[in-house]
Amino acid sequence: MTGRALIAVLCFALVLPAAAAKHEDKEPAKLAPAKERAKELTKKMKEKLQLSGDQEDKVKEINLRAAEAVDRAVTVPGAGRYDRYQAVRAAQTQRDNELKGVLTHNQFATYKRLKDELKDTVKAKAELKKKSSS
Fold it and tell me: What is the pLDDT of residues 123-132, one digit of tens each?
């Protein structure tokens, strides 16, 4: 076995147990606090959607309620993965419905477009990760 092949095998042997342990750990990912997530999302929305001061305040409240709902959804004891997913989706749908009443038609269309682009990016990364782990 060449030196490079031996190094590759050793690196693989060191990384494999850590990856297996991570895979076995079914704990949901730790999220930043709801207030922090809502603040960051509102900041991005203000920049991308050119929110007015009044809109910013309303959007901040909507985002905070949605982030808190997500926190509640992912921490329900005994809830399965699908149940958590459904609860998170419900919180997102509620946020979108509330935003429709605050944003202009053009702002909401931009919001939906950016949200769809982000969803496509996340989906592509997940597929790439799935292919690379096979």
Answer: 898 888 888 8
